[in-house]
Amino acid sequence: MELPDYLSYFFRQGQTPLQTICDLDEQVAEDILKHDVLWRGDGTYLAHRKQHERYLRDQFIAKGGRPVKTYPIYMILGNSPTGPHDLRLEYDYRVIIPLTAFPPEALSFTYPDSLYQVPLDDLGRLHLERNVRPTVYCLHEIAQVIETYKVYEYNNHYVEAQVWDDAPAQPYVSPIYWQRCR
To answer: Rounded to an integer, what distance in angstroms lies between the CA atom of residue 181 and that of residue 31?
Structure first.
C-alpha cells in the first residue's frame, strides 16, 4: 500500500477553513463551542483540548519535530474512510493539500485520531478506545502504522495529521480550493 500523497481538511458551511479552535480568543472559542450542538460545549472542552495538544506537541518535539504553531491544524491523511466514520457525511466542504506542501518536521500523525486509539486485541482484531496519551508518529513512521493496522484495507478509520506550521496551508484557504462533500 502506498502512502497517500495529500492531506484533507473538512469543514462546515460558515467556518473558515484551516483554523483551529485553540488559536481563537478564548471567549470567542467558548461561545462557538456553547452554540455547537455537535460539540455540546460545557465550558470544559477547550481547556482539556489545549492540555491534550500540549501533550501532542511535546511528544512531537521529543521525536525531532519542529512545530511553529502552539496548536496544530487537524487534517487527515488521504481521503475520508467510508462507513460510520465517513467525514464527507458530517461536513460540507473539504480542502485537499499535497503532502509535499509541508516540511516533514511540521507534520505529526496519530492513528486513528489524537483522542482515540485502535489497538489490536489478543485475536488480532481492531477495537476503538479512548486514549489520553496517544502515540505520535512522524512522517517516516506512518507507512508502517498503515501497514500494521491495514488502515486502507478496512477503510473504516483515518490517520489524523497534525499540521504544526500553517504558512504552507494559507493559499488553500481560498474558496477556489474548496470541494463540496455532498
So the answer is: 26
Q: Is the dihedral of CA 86, 177, 161, 131 positive or negative?
A: negative
Bridge-based pairing state of the strands 178-180 and 93-98: antiparallel
Maximum C-alpha span of the chain: 48
CA distance 42 to 153: 38
Calpha distance 60→135 (Å, rounded): 9
* pLDDT tens, residue by residue, 41-92: 667 778 888 999 999 999 999 999 999 999 999 999 999 888 777 889 889 9
Strands, sheet with 73-77, edge to edge from the N-terminal-most edge strand: 137-138, 107-110, 160-163, 73-77, 6-11, 93-98, 178-180
Q: What per-residue confidence (pLDDT) applies to 46? A: 84
Rounded CA separation 89/95 (Å): 15
Residue 50: count of CB within 10 angstroms of its CB: 16
